[in-house]
Structures are given as structure tokens and as C-alpha cells.
Amino acid sequence: MTSMTTGTSRADANRRRILDIALAELLRDPDASMDQIARAAGVVRRTVYGHFPSREALISTLVDEAVEALSAAHAAGREDVRDPAEAVARSVLAVWAIADRYRLLVALAQRTVTMQGIRERLAPVRQASIGLLQRGLDEDVFSSPLPAPALAYVHEQTLFAVMEAVNDGLLAAREAGRCAAVTVLTAAGVPASKATELVAKLNA
Amino acid sequence: MTSMTTGTSRADANRRRILDIALAELLRDPDASMDQIARAAGVVRRTVYGHFPSREALISTLVDEAVEALSAAHAAGREDVRDPAEAVARSVLAVWAIADRYRLLVALAQRTVTMQGIRERLAPVRQASIGLLQRGLDEDVFSSPLPAPALAYVHEQTLFAVMEAVNDGLLAAREAGRCAAVTVLTAAGVPASKATELVAKLNA
DNA sequence: ACGCCGTTGCACAGCACTGTGCAAATCAAT
DNA sequence: ATTGATTTGCACAGTGCTGTGCAACGGCGT
After folding, report:
1. Which residue of A has its CA nearest to B115?
2. According to the model, what pLDDT value does residue A67 have?
3. Sorting pLDDT into bands at 50, 70 and 90, what band is A109?
4. Distance of CA A46 to CAs A9, A10, A16, A42, A58, Å?
5. What part of A 145-174 touches B (C-beta under 8 Å)?
6. For residue A4, what pLDDT band results from cuts at 50, 70 and 90?
7. What is the spatial distance, in angstroms and rounded to an integer, between the CA atom of B5 and the C1' atom of D3?
8. Quick one: closest CA in A to B189, which residue?
9. Residue A101, Cβ neighbours under 10 Å: how many?
10. What does the pLDDT average to over A128-134?
């Protein structure tokens, strides 16, 4: 029980399954207990501790696997490509292939219990946003391969990203509003020049 | 202690301060205990329970305030505006003015303990991204008011948003990769037509 | 049949947190 | 100074989780 260093196939299979199930379980609830994870994996809590000395060690292993795969994909995507645009596109596509498996883990980021409540109550605001975006798409003011609701998600997350940038000192708070507005518009397919001009006009 | 329905100034001031401090404290740690919050507010745990019957009630009040303010700002921004682009721009700017106060609360969304570890380990990947984006900005392939590091945040969050859209069934997984790539490029200021074309070519 | 290894079931100590009760202290204002 | 509202300090029961110890049990190859 204590060692488990010599790899028996049975133990290895269990370890693998625990990791896989833990990934899914931690998505559903980032605070999932060891017991929840163990039971979901068809195993007793004590067994999980046989493979991972602590909860933190389990999660750490999980994250390491994901990051390693993602990192490799990202690097592979941008090798020997001169055009930055193409490099970015290739990287995203490459990452996406891997991310399918880890999509759940990534989503784990957003879904705090608290966050769930926030997003829920923000639904009316988001609904208004969707209407606005839909109108823009219909009138060809906006241009995006995404449907309006998905674009609304991008819209929201973009604002979060700019806020984070301000919090981390990458951007002056004074300019942040304008930058956020311009970025949101360009993400919706408005030409960068037009977006900049419009926002500048509004702020004057 | 039990009633507290009649508003004395002292009690109201305390209540207000508890809410304000709780906001900041919950940002630092979304799982902050009632004791942490109380002490930070210069008050004893028991007193907090005098104002809010439970932890959930406290947080709920907090979220309600934030959502209400945000919602009002968003609505005010897009009143009587025919052009969707202008409406979006106005809304973002209006929301931003309010969000300054609640930036912390919003940021609370991202910062899970788990998430912190993930982003930390993703630093090398992000660094590569920044280099790529910087090159694109230098060569005028990209166009953005944001500095490269901030743009990298937007980049990351956009991917998360598209993943979330897939998870919620707003987007077919098959198309998601291409959509994500196109959206990231347009957010970086690449004209929508060029982005679409480039990604289509890569995928063929 | 034997031994090995992983697994199980149970029990335990420890910890941190929630929500509540109650008496004493404190404050604000009349 | 007395009153009424408010806060404090402490104690308590209840809950749920972590990490560990230990004996018994399971399959599996030899």
C-alpha cells in the first residue's frame, strides 16, 4: 500500500482512471472532496490516498498534464511560420485539438460557486447584449463566425481580460475604458480604424 | 441584536462597512470565512451574523448591489442609439465607469485557487504568445490599442469564452476551433475577411 | 496453495467553519 | 443618569473534510 512504486498494470489503470474521473468531477465542482472523486472513480477514498499523498498532489498532477500537452501543441503550431497572423491561427487550431480533452479543466476556472450566482443574475444584461449583437450582425455592422450568444460570451470575457490587465498594471486605468470598447468592437468584426474613431468621438 | 430593523446610524454604518470590506476580502480569497471578513471589518464574527443571517445572505446582497449597478449602467448606455456599434461602445464605456468599483468583484470570478495554479504554469505559453503578438503589432499585421501583454490576456479569455460556448451548446464543437481562431485574429485587429480566409486556407 | 500487491472498511485525531444562545459591556441620545 | 439599541466575548453543537493507521480481503501469477 505504501510503496506502489513498482508499476503493476492494475494499479496503473486505477491511477489513470482516478485522474480522468477527477478531471471531470473537479469541473462539476472545483471544491469536490476526495470522497466524491473516489466514489466517482468507483474506488474508496483510502485508495486515492494510496496513489496521491494529498489532494493538492492530485490536482497538481492534473494541471501538469494539461499544461504540458497544451504547451507542446502551442509550440508546435507556431514553428517556422513567418507571418504572425498565420502563427497565431495555427497555434489556436493546434491548441484546440488538445484542449478538447481539457476543455473541462479550463472551464473549471470560471465556475466558482460564487461566480455561478453572478452569471446567473447577469442573465438579463447578457440578454440585452445578445439582442444588440444580433442586430449588428443582421445589419452587417458586425461580422463574426460566432452566433450572437457565443459572441456575447466573448464580449464578457474580453471585458474581464482588460480588467485583469488593469489589475496587473499592464494598462492604465484611465485608458482602460476606451481600450475595452475598441477591443470589443474589433472582436465583433468592426474594422480597427472605424472602432478607434467611433470610441474617440464618443469620448470627446 | 435580534431585530435591527429600525435603522440606527451606527448599525447602518457598520452594515455598510461590512459589505464594503467583504467585497475586498472575498476578492482576495473567494472562500474567505466569516471570521476573516469580520476581523477585516474591525468587528466580531457574531456581529456580522447580526446583520446577515448567513454567509450566503451576505454574498447575495453583495452580488445584488453589483448587478443592479452594472445593469443600470449597461441599459443607460444603449438608450436611443440606432447604430449597434455605437450602442455597444456606449454600453462598454458606461459599464466601465461603474465597474471600477466592482472590478474586484468581477475579478473574483477568475481567481480560483486552482485557477491561480493553472495560469501560473501557463506563463511560458503566455510569454510565447506575447512575443508573437508584439511582432504582429510591430509589423502592422495586428492593430490594437492594447499593449501586447494585455492583448495576450484578451487572447486567452477569448479562447475560454468559445470553450464555454461549446460547453453550453451554443456552438458545434466541430466548428469551434476555426471560430476561435478567426475571433482571436479579429480581436487582434486583423480584418474579418482576411482572418476568415486565412483560417479557411489553413484548414483545407 | 502460496505470496505479493493493491484494495477495502473502519476508526481515529485534528482542524476549520457555520450558526446560535446568552450575559455583560458599550454606545448614543434624551 | 437612564434607557434602548448594538456590539462583544465566550461557549456550544453540528458538520464535513483531511490525512493516517491497521487488519482483513481480493485477485493473480507461479
Report:
1. A109
2. 87
3. low
4. 19, 16, 16, 12, 14
5. 145-147, 149-150, 153-167, 170-171, 173
6. low
7. 18
8. A192
9. 14
10. 94
- The CA distances from residue B40 to A3, A105, B25, B26, in Å, are 45, 33, 8, 11
Place of cell 465556475: A111
CB neighbours of residue A98 within 10 Å? 18
Q: Is A79 left (phi over 0), alpha (psi -120 to 50) or beta?
A: beta
Task: Assign B181 to helix, strand or coil.
Answer: helix
Identify which of B86, B160, B190 has the shortest CB distance to residue A198.
B86
The DSSP code sequence of B122-175 is THHHHHHHHHHHHHHHHTTSS--SS-HHHHHHHHHHHHHHHHHHHHTTSS-HHH
Query: A7 is written with which cell numbers?
Result: 508499476
CA torsion angle A191 A193 A197 A199 (round to 10): 50
CA-based nearest residue to A182, from B88, B184, B181, B72: B88
- Give the Å distances, CA to CA, from A72 to A101, B69, B79, B171, B203: 14, 43, 47, 26, 20
Q: Which positions in chain A touch B110 (Cβ < 8 Å)?
A: 109-110, 160, 164
- Write out pLDDT tens, residues B138-178: 999 999 999 999 999 999 989 989 988 988 899 998 999 99
Instruction: Identify the CA nearest to B176 among candidates B189, B194, B158.
Output: B158
The 3-class SS string of chain A reads CCCCCCCCHHHHHHHHHHHHHHHHHHHHCCCCCHHHHHHHCCCCHHHHHHHCCCHHHHHHHHHHHHHHHHHHHHHHHCCCCCCHHHHHHHHHHHHHHHHHHHHHHHHHHHCCHHHHHHHHHCHHHHHHHHHHHHHHHHCCCCCCCCCHHHHHHHHHHHHHHHHHHHHCCCCCHHHHHHHHHHHHHHHCCCCHHHHHHHHHHHHC
CB contact under 8 A, B158 and A132: no
Taking the stretch 136-195 of protein chain B, residues with Cβ within 7 Å of any atom in nucleic acid chain C are none
CA-based R_g, chain A, Å: 22
C-alpha angle with apex B79: B69 to B165, nearest 5 degrees?
65
